[in-house]
Each structure stands twice: as C-alpha cells, then as structure tokens.
Write a structure and sequence with these properties.
The protein is an all-alpha fold and 139 residues long. The chain contains eight helices and no strands.
Length: 139
C-alpha cells in the first residue's frame, strides 16, 4: 500500500462529501475509500494508537483504525456535530484522531467486563446447581 498524505482541506472535503459517495460507481467509490484509508494510515493511525494505548492499554490494528475512521466519517454525514467541528477546527487531522480515539475508548469500556471478581463468583454460584455443590461426593 503506497503512502499518501492529505491536507486538512482534502480531509474536510471528503467528510463533507461522504454522503455523496454512494452515488458513485463501485470502482470510484472503492478508489476514494482506499485513498482515505491510505491517508488515515499515515496521518491518523499513529495519533489514535498513542491516545488509546495511553488510556486503555490495548494494542490496535492500524488497518482496523483506518477502516473504522472511514466508516465513522461516512456514517456521520456532513451535519453531525463531529463533522461540523472537523470542518471549522484549525487542525482537522488532530481533531479526527481525538474523535476516533474517543469512540474507541467508549467501545472498549462498553465491551470489556467491568465486574469485580466477587460479582463474577456470585454469578457462577448462582448459575450452578445448589444440590450439586452441597451434596457430598459419592463413591
């Protein structure tokens, strides 16, 4: 995969026109998406990895971050609050990195078990058959 760099202007343009991408033929749609992901791999991924690793300690896939960012930008559309701020902020790539890192931190928090060991053990005991636990072993 070749390295590509986008200016803030190019990033803003992609975000603003994300809703129009679906009117393109499939080949052009995939070309533009791939171009975004290559730019994101260079300019976004290192920033997101540093932010997320620092806060949750989980290593992340560079390709996955680029794909997630593309999906998030396209899904948000031009009138989402995040997109609106990206369009007017001074450093669009830095803002996008924080937006994506924040979403990934939230996803991590929502999917990683946050129960204490005592609660887990209580759940196991609750799910187990009381009779099997209390009955003496027969030989």
């Amino acid at each position: 995969m070749s390295t590509i760099r986008w200016s803030d202007r190019e990033l803003r343009d992609y975000c603003l026109r994300a809703g129009e991408l679906f009117y393109l033929d499939h080949a052009e749609l995939e070309r533009r998406r791939a171009s975004f992901e290559r730019a994101a791999a260079t300019q976004l991924v290192p920033l997101v990895q540093a932010r997320v690793i620092a806060s949750v300690g989980a290593p992340l896939s560079a390709e996955g971050i680029a794909m997630f960012a593309r999906e998030r930008v396209e899904g948000a559309g031009p009138w989402a609050r995040e997109t609106q701020w990206l369009l007017v902020c001074a450093d669009a790539w830095a803002y996008l990195a924080e937006w994506i890192a924040d979403d990934l931190r939230k996803a991590h928090k929502a999917t990683v078990g946050r129960k204490s060991k005592a609660t887990i053990l209580d759940g196991i005991a609750e799910a187990s058959s009381r009779a099997a636990i209390e009955a003496p072993a027969t030989e």
